[in-house]
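Data availability (excerpt). The following record was deposited with the supplementary files.
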Amino acid sequence: MIPAGRTEHGQRARAAALRGRALRAAMLGALLSGSAVFGGCGSGAAIRQVTYPPSFQYLEQREVHTAMGRLARDINRLERLLTSDGAVNAQQRDQVVGVLRDMETAAAELAPQGRRTNHPRIDRNIEAFRHELQLARLAAEQEPPNYFPAGSIAGACQACHLDENTR
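Predicted structure:
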């Protein structure tokens, strides 16, 4: 006959071994699942689709640089059009309106209305900038056109970027 202590000890040892195997199997399963999720995605975009709410837009650094580069290019175009010798003619007026529309598009790509991003400075300033762009376009479209708001757009950019340099 086997003493009671040994049987009880054997049962505890078998239970501990089973728990150990179950834990290793669970860890292996989690590891394999994690590698399938993170390894099979190819980029963080697929992960962000399920980790951020629909009202949030994650902006890649290259997206910000591209949109800001387009805005800077458009500011230069706008300034050239508005500082040319003589009065702005009808063709130049159409170009001014077109540049302002392009800028509205670039600003909308940075942060669609009502959505938050991973860039707090953009979140703080984009709505005011979009409003300035819209006012400038509407003023340029009216009869007679008013180009003063369009000429002030560069100042709207500087307001945000000067803030950036003081932090």
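Summary of structural features: The first helix runs from residue 4 to 40.
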